[in-house]
Amino acid sequence: MKYDLPAELESLRSLLATTPSPVEKLLLEARRFALASHFFWGLWSIIQAKIYTTKFGYLEYAQSRFEAYFEQKKLFWLKTKFFKKQK
Fold it and tell me: Which pathway or pathways does this protein act in (predicted)?
């Protein structure tokens, strides 16, 4: 079987040069709101830990939300950089 490397490379280049589809743009927007949600609930939980004496792990919950925020932020920026390179 003969493999045409230049044609495959050109095909890959054209695939990578496409702009994000409406669905991909919607996913990027959803990821932005997910980041905001993680950050908001992390802050909310810290405030609740200061205000209330309820036996609930507010600080542990805040920590988990901020961990999710920073993990998603890394993934979000990687995907955003990928789409910016395509333009």
Answer: Phospholipid metabolism; phosphatidylethanolamine biosynthesis; phosphatidylethanolamine from ethanolamine: step 1/3
- Domain ranges within the chain, ordered by starting residue: 33-87
CA–CA gap between residue 44 and residue 50 (Å, rounded): 10
Tokens of 58: 């507010």
Q: Read off the pTM.
A: 0.66
User: Per residue in 27-85, pLDDT tens?
Assistant: 888 988 999 999 999 999 999 999 998 889 999 999 999 999 999 998 887 766 655 55
Give the Cα separation of 71 and 31 in Å (integer): 12
Residue closest to 59 by CA, chosen among 33, 80, 75, 41: 41
What are the CB-based long-range contacts (under 8 Å, 24+) for 25-34?
A: 28/76, 28/79, 28/80, 28/83, 31/72, 31/75, 31/76, 31/79, 32/76, 34/72
